[in-house]
């Protein structure tokens, strides 16, 4: 709850007229997720967009040395929480699944995290291609700090780039990008010019 408050307070400073509610929820608990969605709708009347951003990252180690419980938690938590949130709001709003550039890598010791991030592409397609957009941002987070080898490649600046992208995606103007792997530093206008040129643009093909 303290972490949520730390996010809510600056919002009140930047946008004094904005109403902010915080709900501490176990994102792997389906009933808790549904209840938080219900409370949000009761408070605000509707939900315009859901951004599924929770997850965990195992300590990077060879499979022979990895802790099985930690490895499995990293593997399934990302998909379970995404499925639970999307199931609760799919008919109500846009849903965005936040991924990582690591989804396209095969780094020693990162099997669970990278497999789960890559599989989000298929999850987005299976849930409903017409209503899901999947993005990644190369931004340094507390979780990313647990893997020193990747931190030089992350951008520890502001969240404005990702925030602006999320607003544009949730507006509905970019729904043609549903089910695709989209980086926050992409030029959406440039991508639009290639829409007819490449029907499978940014889609994963195994």
UniProtKB/TrEMBL annotation:
Superkingdom of this protein's organism: Eukaryota
SUPFAM superfamilies: NAD(P)-binding Rossmann-fold domains
Record-linked InterPro entries: NAD(P)-bd_dom_sf (IPR036291), SDR_fam (IPR002347)
Any matching Pfam family: adh_short
Molecular-function GO terms, alphabetical: oxidoreductase activity, acting on the CH-OH group of donors, NAD or NADP as acceptor
Coiled coil: none
PANTHER family according to UniProt: SHORT-CHAIN DEHYDROGENASES/REDUCTASES FAMILY MEMBER
Record-stated family: Belongs to the short-chain dehydrogenases/reductases (SDR) family.
UniProt-recorded name of the protein: NAD P-binding protein
Species for this entry: Gloeophyllum trabeum (strain ATCC 11539 / FP-39264 / Madison 617) (Brown rot fungus)
């Amino acid at each position: 709850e303290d972490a949520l408050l730390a996010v809510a307070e600056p919002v009140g400073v930047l946008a004094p007229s904005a109403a902010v509610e915080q709900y501490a929820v176990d994102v792997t608990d389906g009933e808790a997720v549904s209840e938080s969605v219900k409370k949000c709708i009761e408070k605000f009347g509707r939900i315009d967009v859901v951004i599924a951003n929770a997850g965990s990252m195992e300590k990077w180690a060879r499979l022979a040395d990895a802790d099985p419980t930690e490895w499995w938690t990293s593997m399934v938590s990302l998909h379970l929480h995404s499925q639970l949130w999307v199931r609760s709001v799919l008919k109500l709003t846009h849903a965005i699944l936040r991924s990582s550039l690591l989804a396209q890598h095969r780094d020693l010791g990162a099997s669970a995290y990278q497999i789960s991030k890559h599989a989000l592409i298929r999850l987005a397609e299976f849930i409903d291609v017409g209503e899901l957009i999947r993005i990644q941002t190369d931004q340094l987070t507390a979780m990313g700090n647990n893997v020193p080898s990747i931190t030089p490649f992350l951008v520890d600046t502001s969240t404005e780039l990702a925030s602006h992208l999320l607003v544009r995606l949730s507006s509905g103007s970019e729904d043609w990008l549903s089910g695709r792997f989209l980086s926050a530093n992409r030029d959406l206008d440039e991508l639009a010019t290639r829409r007819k040129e490449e029907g499978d643009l940014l889609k994963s093909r195994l």
